[in-house]
Amino acid sequence: MTVLTPTRERIRSAWNAIAPRYDEVATPMNQLFAEEALRRVDLGPGVRFLDVACGSGALAIPAARRGARVIAVDLAPAMIERLIARACAERLLAVTGRQMNGESLEFPDDTFDVTASQNGISLFSDLKAGLREAVRVTKPGGSVLIIAFGSPRRAELIGFLFGALRAAVPGFTPPMNPPSLPFQPADPDRFSRELAEAGLTDVRLHAFSDVEQVPLAPRRAAEWRDWFRGWIDGRLCDYLAPTDRAALLALIEPDGPNDLVNNPDFFLVRTWLLATGRA
Questions:
Q1: Do the Cβ atoms of 137 and 111 come closer than 8 Å?
Q2: Which residues contact residue 150 at a Cβ distance below 8 angstroms, ignoring those fewer than 6 apart?
Q3: Are 276 and 144 in contact (CB under 8 A)?
Q4: CA distances from 255 to 35, 76, 161, 170, 225 (A)
Q5: Burial zone of 120 (CB within 10 Å; 0-12 exposed, 13-18 middle, 19+ buried)
Q6: Counting beta carbons within 10 angstroms of the beta carbon of residue 211, is it exposed (0 to 12), middle (13 to 18) or buried (19 or more)?
Q7: pTM
Q8: Residue-wise pLDDT tens digits, 76-129
Q9: Which end of the chain is less enclosed by CB atoms within 10 A, N or C?
Q10: Using N-to-C axis directions, what is the helix angle for 8-21 and 218-233, rounded to 10°?
């Protein structure tokens, strides 16, 4: 297996590449969970809300619906474009999108009442820096909300990807020690310590999961196949050589060995950790 070292530009390009399918498939699902998560922080008219690594608005849009004045930042301009399109479609005028590196936020200290991130800061190569920045820009006594992937051992969705990688790339071993970027916060004790070290008090963690069983309806299977294809050809292009990536893509085609439509034993399990704390 050939592994490439991602640069910030490659990461930006990867997220730009998957933005259309991410917006179509992932954001609506993430938005349902975000609506539930936002009930754990004080939101209402006039609250200044920052969404870090916002994607196409799964967290920012529900916050704006509740009256918050939202600034949403992301490294990928394609994600910001889709966020703004969603806000405009709902006539949510209090949503501003900016391209920005979440590990070095361009805001003064103590700017926001609530700072939040859904599967965003948890993907940063420097998780500690991302958490410190989230705390820094939050007003004293304000809330920080972080939603992250839970344990990969409970996420068959990730198991599907790892299984396909093993089949396509001989010798592939999931990078779990240290955890790969999506699962940096998966250990609740470690995550709690890192949140406290970043400056949060009253840290609370909650675990959630939901399940979708297959065989999927043809449309849902097609959506997931396109989502995997976009993830592999976008995000994973940071880590795999072109030949390995091509071999992996071949495995998720219809009627292939990992075809979701024809795999009756497969479950799509989404597992999250929800963390809250006070700045």
A1: yes
A2: 186, 207, 208, 209, 271, 272, 273
A3: yes
A4: 36, 33, 17, 22, 11
A5: buried
A6: exposed
A7: 0.76
A8: 999 999 999 999 999 999 999 999 999 999 999 999 999 999 989 988 889 999
A9: N
A10: 170
